[in-house]
């Protein structure tokens, strides 16, 4: 959301006088004098400010909020007054409710924030003046300025109030071809999306898309509204499909993602189209349709290769590997995952390296290739050490330890099957030292077993296991 630059505020006479006594403004009157009893204040004003009118005296005596309200009513802006008064009441109610939940609630009362009161006074009265003249575009612009001004985490509910007002006014504007109405639908879609109401958000984004289709409208930042509508719809449909997949409603999830891919094509943005294919492919995989998933994901990888987007290509290869693994095509899945590791390493994507290496380790471990499994699990563990990610480090450490245990078990079985003195001596030594056993092949084809110390990862794994299973001593 683009925030408009602040405009100079034209204040009324009462507001200008009242603002002089605010704590944030320089004041010629000592603050101590302003907190005295009413008679003392009247005496002070009579002595020092002879000739002031009753209204000017009231400007010093009343709060800034009250003076703003008096100005609105005096100038005939009763609708602006009602709206401001309702906002102030809701502001106080929300602040009080938040204060009850948290003692350290930082938000100040509205009467202590004169800049916000100034903006509300100026643009609400301008909007009411435009309403009297029937200038709906001006009403929209003034309300939209207020929505942008309150676009922050603390005042988001005020922003939403003015988004709703903009939406009501935009439907009355007929001379711009529907651009303001399209923008208002986009704002309402964002409002519902932030509140987690995805179906309502999708309805507004669909209306936004219909109004912006085929138009060359742009927003304040120069982005085409049609493309923004496609992006918003694609994001909302993906979030809806995630919920459907969680509920195992695969048919509806696939249906809505097919619709998303069609909208992405219409947006004429290849990257967005590729993302739609990616989510659709994963949905087909979850629904148990690997062949269709593979075809859709191949489209995604082709688009990523065309765009020379290596990160997206790596993500496509990883998804394709999962599909191939589900079909039992382990060798092909391994080849794709090796490509993922290479791409992620070249682009310094350590988390992708860890994930792909772990998947490779699992595949090799399942096929009984324990040496290869150990190699990739160790690569995953070494990468987590560089990231200093302790939870992930412990997880990869366990994978690595299991693969090394399988590797040692294979060597021990071979050592037992060898049935010679050297192998027996190796087994007895291992029982005393618990070192790693490896088989060294010599020229005549026989095997000689040697003992090697455990790697630091395995030693730390033993420490981790010892700390977990260490018995608690009662005192």
TrEMBL record:
Q: GO CC annotations?
A: cytoplasm; sperm flagellum
- Which InterPro entries does this one have? Bac_ResReg_Asp_Phosphatase, TPR-like_helical_dom_sf, TPR_rpt
Q: Which UniProt keywords apply?
A: Cytoplasm, Repeat, TPR repeat
Q: Name one GO biological process term.
A: cilium movement
The listed locations are:
Cytoplasm
Superkingdom as given in the UniProt entry? Eukaryota
The signal peptide here is none
Pfam families according to UniProt = TPR_8 (PF13181)
**Keyword Cytoplasm set for record:** yes
User: Quick check: keyword Cell inner membrane in the entry?
Assistant: no
Q: In UniProt terms, what function does this protein have?
A: Axonemal protein which is implicated in axonemal and/or peri-axonemal structure assembly and regulates flagellum assembly and beating and therefore sperm motility.
- Name recorded for this polypeptide: Tetratricopeptide repeat protein 29
